[in-house]
Amino acid sequence: MSEQQEVFIDFDTEDFSEELSLIGLTEADLRIVKQMKPVLQKHLDELSEAFYGRLLANEHLKHIIEKHSRIDRLKQTLAQHIIEMFNCEFNQSYIEKRLTIARVHFQIGLEPKWYIGAFQLLQSRIIDVAYDSIESKEDFKCFVSAVTKVFNFEQQLVLEEGYNQNRKAFEEKDSIRDQLKGQISETVTSLAAVSEETSASMEELASSSDEMLGTVNKTEEQSKKTQKLAQDGFDKMDQLNQRIKQIQDNAQNLQETVANLQHSSMKIEEVVNLVKDIADKTNLLALNSAIEAARAGEHGKGFAVVADEVRKLAEQTKDSAEKITGFIGENHHHMAEVVSTLNDVDQSVEDGNEDFVVTRDVFKGIVSSMDESISYIDEVVAEIQTLSAGVNQITSSTETLSETTERLNQTTKQF
Fold first, then answer.
1. Does residue 240 share a domain with residue 169?
2. Could you give the C-alpha distances from 146 to 27, 67, 85, 131, in angstroms and in order?
3. pLDDT at 247 over 70
4. What's the number of CA atoms in the CB half-sphere (13 Å) around residue 375?
5. Domain presence at residue 13
6. CB-CB contact of 352 with 247 (8 Å)
7. Which of 11, 10, 36, 6 is nearest to 151 (CA)?
8. What's the CATH number where 77 sits?
9. Dist. CA 284–CA 307, nearest whole Å
10. Are both 209 and 101 inside the same structural domain?
11. Are residues 261 and 332 in the same domain?
């Protein structure tokens, strides 16, 4: 193993000099390690199979592997990792890859004990391969010492970065806890204020709901009274309609009676005219009798007296007949006025009947509208009662929120 190998240790900073100094890793050690690279390349598949065969036997590690990756991919990654280790080119790129491994382990939740155990397993398998390949015990001893330093350095890098990741996580948790505490405190204050405002608003709303319910109930009572009055008016209109019809019937009967009276008056007038004619004839006859009595002289005096009395009676009869004719004329005039008045009454009744129909329809519409209004008011009452129940529930929830806020505030103070 005396052949010189090209190796180097070249970092951007001196941050890792103490680690290298502590474990005593030098470029001479890297040359010893790199001499085994050709041998290990022949055993990469064997090393990968043995390595992951042991890991998959552990259920916890098997679960992590199957959850975050695939075996074939991990075997390729392991082979590449071994080649990079035995290239022995320790530069900043090499460091970054190891730090990335540490971050991945942290992200998937791989605990350091599993990483150390797995790395120890890999180191043992590589030493076994070297044991079969190195003939000189001294050379084998030097290789074991050198490769152990390389593995230790890798473990230092990975474990230190894992520690840094954990510390960073704890610091972030502390920061988040402080932020959360501040946010909770602000939230508690806001919730307390909101709770008080909500409680006051709910009390005001509850009071308004009660007042509104009282007003609506009064409105409903008044509406029912109005509905009753409208219904009474509607009933009165029906009664008035019956009376109007009765008046109309009576007016028609009276018209018929007046017509009969007119007819009777005409008959009476005919009789009176006949009486007047008889009176005229009787008067003429009495006049002739008086003339004849005068001619008779003394013998006709008695007859003359009778004739004169007949004449007077005829004249009185004629005068009475003329008076009756005058009365009949006046009666005709009055009956004509009655007929005209009855016609006016009949027309007024007709007009009144039309107005009645319109008025009755108006009352009917009022009754129907009041029915709808009362139904709507009942719905409003139900809605207000539901609202009142909701307000009471919100008030109860607000009180619960206030109590919860206070407990949250006390819990926050215990952080």
1. no
2. 10, 35, 12, 14
3. no
4. 6
5. yes
6. no
7. 36
8. 1.10.490.10
9. 10
10. no
11. yes
Q: For residue 8, what is the enclosing H or E element?
A: strand 8-10
Contact 384, 213 (CB under 8 A): yes
Query: With bands split at pLDDT 50, 70 and 90, how would you rate the model's confidence at 187?
Result: low
Give the separation between CA 331 and CA 325, rounded to whole angstroms: 9
- Cβ atoms 402, 189 nearer than 8 A: no
For the chain, how many structural domains are there in total? Answer: 2
The answer as to whether 2 is a domain residue is no
Residue ranges making up the domain that contains 116: 8-186
Long-range contacts of residues 383-388, Cβ cutoff 8 Å, at least 24 apart: 384/209, 384/212, 384/213, 384/216, 385/213, 387/209, 388/206, 388/209, 388/210, 388/213
pLDDT of 386: 81
As a whole number of angstroms, the distance between CA 394 and CA 261 comes to: 88
Q: Measured between alpha carbons, how far is 179 from 171 in angstroms, rounded to an integer?
A: 12
Confidence (pLDDT) at 202: 65
Give the number of other Cβ atoms within 10 Å of residue 114's Cβ. 16
Residue 368 lies in a domain: yes
In a domain? residue 191: no
Q: Hey, which residues does 361 pair with through a beta bridge?
A: none
* Whether the predicted pLDDT of 373 surpasses 80: no
Which pLDDT belongs to residue 136? 93
Closest CA to 34 of 105, 113, 89: 89
- Beta-bridge partner residues of 10: 91
- CATH number of the domain within which 392 lies: 1.10.287.950
Longest dimension (CA), the chain: 221
Q: How many other CB atoms are found less than 10 A from the CB of residue 286?
A: 21
Encode pLDDT of 132-144 as tens digits: 999 999 999 999 9
Q: Are residues 117 and 215 in the same domain?
A: no
168 and 219, same domain (yes or no): no
Q: Supply the pLDDT for residue 63.
A: 93
**Residue position matching structure tokens 């009362």:** 374
pLDDT at 151 over 70: yes
Angstrom distance (rounded) from CA 264 to CA 261? 5
Instruction: Name the more confident of 214 and 40.
Output: 40
CB 149 within 8 A of CB 55: no
